[in-house]
Amino acid sequence: AAGVIQSPRHLIKEKRETATLKCYPIPRHDTVYWYQQGPGQDPQFLISFYEKMQSDKGSIPDRFSAQQFSDYHSELNMSSLELGDSALYFCASSLKLHYNEQFFGPGTRLTVL
Amino acid sequence: GENVEQHPSTLSVQEGDSAVIKCTYSDSASNYFPWYKQELGKRPQLIIDIRSNVGEKKDQRIAVTLNKTAKHFSLHITETQPEDSAVYFCADTLRGGSYIPTFGRGTSLIVHP
Prior knowledge:
Largest sheet of chain A: 7 strands, mixed
Number of helices of chain A: 0
Structural class of chain B: mainly beta
Order of helices and strands of chain B: EEEEEEEEEEE
Order of helices and strands of chain A: EEEEEEEEEEE
Oligomer: heterodimer
Distance between the termini of chain A: 37 Å
Number of strands of chain A: 11
Largest interface: A-B, 22 and 22 residues
Number of helices of chain B: 0
Helix content of chain A: under 10%
Radius of gyration of chain B: 13 Å
Shape of chain A: globular
Strand content of chain B: over 45%
Strand content of chain A: over 45%
Distance between the termini of chain B: 32 Å
C-alpha cells in the first residue's frame, strides 16, 4: 500500500539559509500535518491543512510557512534557519480531519550548521 | 507536551512481563487518544487508539483503557518481547477546541531478553 512520501530524507543547511521540505500524502487523504521532533523530544505539531486550506496552527515559528497544493502535496518552507531548527520533520496524512488515524512519513532529517 | 502528562519516562522489564504506561490529559472535550510506537530514527507508528465512547480496547497483546472522569488513559502490553523495545507516545488531539495533536513526552520501554 502507498505510504506518505517525504523528500528529501536528509538535508544539511547553513545558518540563515532557507529550506523546503515536501510531503506527498497517501492517495485520497485530504489532511496533512507537519511535526518537528528534536533529539529525545516528543513530536511538536506545527501546522495542518485540510482540503488545501490551513486548518490548525501549532508551534510553527513565523520564519516557517507551509501550503497544500491542488494535488494535495504539501511543502514546508523554512527561512533564516537557526541551529535550533535541526530536527526530524515528519509529515502525516489522514483521510478525515479529527477522527481518523494519522499515517506518518519517514521524516526529513534537517541539520543546520 | 504541556497538556499531556506521561509516566514513566523509562520502563525496564524482563521478557514476558507486562508493561503499563499512563497518560493524563486536561481538556475534558478530548475524544480521541492514540498511542504511537517509535523506534530510534524511525517514524511514529500508531499501535492502538481509543475513542471516548468506549472504556477499553484490545488488540492481541496490546490494550488501552480510558477513564474519562479521571481524564487518564493507559497502555498495557502483556507478554513483552525484546522487539517491543521502543519509545511509546500517547497523544491528546484537542487543545482549546482546535484539533492540535499534543504528544506526551514519551516512555522508553526496554525489554530485557
